[in-house]
Write a structure and sequence with these properties.
The chain is 25% helix and 30% strand. It is α+β, with helices and mostly antiparallel strands and 246 residues long. It has a six-stranded antiparallel β-sheet. A two-stranded antiparallel sheet has the order 1-2. Helix 1 packs across helix 3 (50-62) and helix 2 packs across helix 3. The longest helix has 14 residues, at 13-26.
Length: 246
Amino acid sequence: MPDLATPAPGLSRYGQIAARLQQKIVSGEWMPGAAIPAESALATEFGIALGTIRQAIAVLVQEGLLERLQGKGTFVRTGLSGASMMRFFRFRSEAETASAAIPRSEILSCRAVRLDKTMAGRFGLETGARGLAISRRRWVAEQPRLIESIWLPLPRCAPLQDLPVSDWGDLLYPLLWQQCGITVHRAMDEVTFRPLDAEEAASLALPDGHPCALVTRQAYDIQGQCVEYRLTRGDAYAFRYTADIR
């Protein structure tokens, strides 16, 4: 174990401890959802002051790796559950809005494919590596509202190949954790606009060429590896964007 009493150049002592704690999370020593040891126990383990361990923990809370629950302690974050695309869309009726928290998911297809250079590179794989290509449609109030193309890396997501799509449920990220042991820690979404092509429009019961909001997502596990690439298409007239700027 390195001498923690002398921080590495350019890194504070609490920053050094934060890096060590982060390694416990990334390595799986501290599992998602688990409570971390008491601050006093960690201070003793590292031979540092209680204030220093609190600063280190605060760094990881700020980075989203840990979360403090009032009266319960500090826990490893379980990651994203749904990270719902519905936050981008508002549908017209109150009934639809009320039921939009978790739209019903319909898996149209799931097949293993060879990934091209660009897609393989997103997952840190060699050109020609295999992945899962999934087509999914999402329903709100019995109306088709979103269509999605999703790519997942193999062999990490291989358990999904043998799982009947009827058992997938409506949310992908809990499924990835339950079946593949993958915790989705963060996701980046980019929104653009274009017309729907004929096939997309038919899937959404909209006219050919109807304006479409396209949300491109890349999701990452706790180690920073890309574990999902997704394209979501929906009615641009139902699109909404809210930013809280302070």
